Q: What sequence folds into this?
């Protein structure tokens, strides 16, 4: 069907404002949004990776770029990884002063299959971010959680646990680590580099009739 | 040492970076996505910072101070290739230019890490991190949009067709080419172009974009000897607007 309101701007056409379909009812279309990915950064060599927040992106490579811009631009950073939000397996939230591991049902099922690597993250208290505690090798997510409890369950408090399959994570490659190695002499980027108060004071003295500046 | 050859080499690199840095900074506030707005602005700052480092080297070779060199010359005294002075246009063009230029820039700096002129070899190592990010950024976007939708592919293709002859102008041969290579300052524009063609082909092969046939294209030359499009002087006028108001102000 030719649209009499075809615009030269593709964004207008995508809105579909003037399109009339012959059907009375059509399924509501999904939101025009990217999927979300979670970003984790390492602030110093040897430090634990910490969750920093989500980004919206069409794929993991783009998510990596966006996360780099959003979360590692002004702070020190030596490593970044991203993973699709729905690849993170999470427990329920436990009490503030204890461990959520204690509340989990004991799983006695003997898991079979090829083991894979899972990264384990703990949340120490509500309002802060999950931090990496280590990794386990297990054939299933449940088996990984059981193993995580045995290995890292002594920590107190643990309000929430995340289990992430290693294979789904977009890590920083060794060559990419250099991207945070930027020129140091860029003070002009910060307002604090412009020291003008003494000059404002001098100007005020030279112009006593000036009310305010 | 052959100072004239060396200066010619450094001037064109510095001017490329300053002018492209200024152009890319024009995306600040109007980028297609918030992250992209930040990315383009921050890479623009990187480029201006790198240009400043190069003007500093020129100063040590007897040229004026970096600010004087950057802000008081007119278009015919600039040695940048014409590619970098073209207006930002739509985002498709800016992205393609970013990809074509930065791929060449990264390879150039890689070659310069072994330059016999020590100050150049040093900054080449210092810039590695920033440059690696610039090419990662360009490659990720080109790979994504170069195989996404009919609209994104056709827009990038048109931008590529338009930008490619200008991009070949990056490699305009220097009158000092022989000395530059013989002295070991730099491996030369021809070698750089070969490496560049190989690199951009390998990225474009992952997309649905087609590289125009180099054999039937006339490169846009002249930038290196001060011949520019009508777009450079207005850019310089804008860039030097504040300096021109108060040339002796302290910052």
A:
């Amino acid at each position: 069907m030719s649209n009499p309101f075809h615009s030269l701007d593709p964004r207008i056409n995508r809105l579909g404002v003037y399109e009339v379909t012959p059907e009375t009812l059509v399924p509501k279309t999904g939101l025009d949004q990217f999927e979300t990915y979670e970003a984790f950064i390492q602030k110093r060599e040897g430090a634990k990776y910490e969750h920093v927040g989500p980004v919206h992106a069409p794929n993991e490579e783009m998510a990596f770029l966006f996360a780099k811009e959003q979360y590692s631009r002004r702070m020190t950073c030596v490593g970044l990884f991203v993973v699709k939000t729905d690849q993170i397996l999470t427990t329920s939230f436990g009490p503030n002063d204890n461990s959520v591991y204690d509340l989990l049902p004991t799983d006695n099922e003997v898991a079979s299959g090829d083991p894979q690597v899972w990264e384990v993250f703990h949340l120490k208290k509500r309002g802060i971010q999950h931090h990496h505690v280590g990794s386990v090798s297990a054939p299933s997510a449940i088996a990984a959680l059981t193993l995580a409890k045995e290995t890292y369950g002594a920590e107190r408090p643990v309000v929430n646990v995340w289990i992430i399959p290693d294979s789904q994570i977009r890590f920083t490659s060794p060559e990419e680590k250099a991207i945070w190695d930027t020129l140091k002499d860029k003070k002009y980027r910060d307002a604090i580099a412009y020291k003008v108060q003494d000059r404002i004071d001098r100007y005020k003295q030279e112009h006593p009739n000036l009310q305010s500046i | 040492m052959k100072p004239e050859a060396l200066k010619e080499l450094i001037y064109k690199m510095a001017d490329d970076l300053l002018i492209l840095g200024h152009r890319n900074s024009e995306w600040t506030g109007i980028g297609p996505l918030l992250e992209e707005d930040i990315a383009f602005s921050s890479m623009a700052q990187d480029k201006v910072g790198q240009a400043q480092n190069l003007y500093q080297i020129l100063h040590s070779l007897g040229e004026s101070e970096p600010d004087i060199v950057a802000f008081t010359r007119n278009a015919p005294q600039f040695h940048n290739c014409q590619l970098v002075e073209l207006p930002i246009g739509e985002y498709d063009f800016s992205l393609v230019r970013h990809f074509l230029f930065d791929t060449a820039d990264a390879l150039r700096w890689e070659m310069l890490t072994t330059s016999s002129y020590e100050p150049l070899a040093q900054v080449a190592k210092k810039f590695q991190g920033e440059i690696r990010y610039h090419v990662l950024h360009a490659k990720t976007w080109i790979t994504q949009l170069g195989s996404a939708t009919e609209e994104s592919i056709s827009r990038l293709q048109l931008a590529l067709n338009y930008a490619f002859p200008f991009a070949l102008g990056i490699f305009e041969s220097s009158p000092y080419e022989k000395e530059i290579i013989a002295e070991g300052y730099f491996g030369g524009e021809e070698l750089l172009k070969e490496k560049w063609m190989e690199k951009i082909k390998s990225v474009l092969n992952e997309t649905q974009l087609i590289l125009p046939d180099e054999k039937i294209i006339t490169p846009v030359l002249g930038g290196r000897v001060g011949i520019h499009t009508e777009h450079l002087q207005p850019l310089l006028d804008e860039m030097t607007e504040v300096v021109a108001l108060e040339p002796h102000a302290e910052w």
